[in-house]
């Protein structure tokens, strides 16, 4: 087993995944991709979501699909982009909903590490992508790994709020125990389905649930 550079709390519970045949094939594929062309996010940020949000600190999970494939966009957190990069449409819509829902204006930066550090696991289903080639690393093994992440969270933690936006994320969250956690589902915040995303009040409902369970609410600014 190759040494996986991921936060220790996650490494401990996911160690069986790192010994499975699919993981070996996946890491070989990803390594070759980084060696032979441009891949996002930078290798050091592949597990950034986990490093910023250890297992025992997770309060909220936001599930995305795969990283942005444009120059300097992806930074290892779902829906986020690096500071100074123009906000993608989905993130703009997330910010609009936050403003309409809880009456605060989010910061102009798209780097969501400020949320991750409060306990928001910004989890993409696929953790790498080839430059300018969306979904190029899907079905290579990442989905199995991130399914295991959600399953592990479900088995080891409770009173977590899962924000599942779009059909893909809904499917990803089917294993979650609805009696021990809060699962909020809606359409995806992309421009194609955003009218069904707006008005769902996920951010206020999330904070209400956290408060009811004596957990510090998330500052969504």
Automatic annotation (TrEMBL):
Domain Uracil-DNA glycosylase-like, first and last residues per copy: 51-210
Keyword Oxidoreductase applies: no
Keyword hit for Transcription regulation: no
Entry-linked SMART domains: UDG, UreE_C
Keywords of the record: Cytoplasm, DNA damage, DNA repair, Hydrolase
Name of the protein in question: Uracil-DNA glycosylase
Family: Belongs to the uracil-DNA glycosylase (UDG) superfamily. UNG family.
Domain of life: Bacteria
Active site, UniProt feature: 66 (proton acceptor)
Function: Excises uracil residues from the DNA which can arise as a result of misincorporation of dUMP residues by DNA polymerase or due to deamination of cytosine.
Primary site of residence: cytoplasm
GO biological process: base-excision repair, AP site formation via deaminated base removal
GO MF annotation: an example: uracil DNA N-glycosylase activity
Name of encoding gene: ung
GO cellular component, one term: cytoplasm
Cellular compartments annotated: Cytoplasm
E.C. numbers: 3.2.2.27
Recorded catalytic activity of this chain's protein: Hydrolyzes single-stranded DNA or mismatched double-stranded DNA and polynucleotides, releasing free uracil
Matching InterPro entries: UDG_fam1 (IPR002043), Ura-DNA_Glyclase_AS (IPR018085), Uracil-DNA_glycosylase-like (IPR005122), Uracil-DNA_glycosylase-like_sf (IPR036895)
Lineage of the species this protein comes from: Bacteria, Candidatus Roizmaniibacteriota
């Amino acid at each position: 087993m190759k040494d996986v550079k991921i936060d220790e709390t996650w490494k401990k519970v996911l160690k069986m995944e790192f010994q499975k045949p699919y993981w070996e094939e996946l890491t070989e594929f990803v390594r070759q991709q980084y060696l032979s062309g441009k891949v996002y996010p930078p290798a050091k940020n592949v597990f950034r979501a986990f490093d910023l949000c250890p297992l025992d600190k997770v309060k909220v999970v936001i599930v995305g699909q795969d990283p942005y494939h444009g120059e300097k966009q992806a930074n290892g957190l779902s829906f986020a982009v690096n500071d100074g990069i123009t906000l993608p449409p989905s993130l703009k819509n997330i910010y609009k909903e936050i403003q309409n829902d809880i009456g605060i204006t989010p910061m102009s930066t798209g780097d969501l590490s400020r949320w991750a550090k409060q306990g928001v696991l910004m989890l993409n289903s696929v953790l790498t992508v080839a430059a300018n080639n969306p979904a190029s690393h899907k079905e290579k093994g990442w989905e199995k790994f991130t399914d295991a992440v959600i399953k592990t969270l479900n088995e080891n933690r409770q009173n977590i709020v899962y924000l599942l936006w779009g059909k893909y994320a809904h499917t990803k969250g089917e294993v979650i125990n609805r009696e021990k956690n809060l699962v909020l589902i809606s359409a995806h915040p992309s421009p194609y389905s955003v009218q069904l995303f707006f008005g769902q009040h996920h951010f206020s409902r999330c904070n209400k649930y956290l408060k009811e369970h004596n957990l510090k609410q998330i500052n969504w600014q």
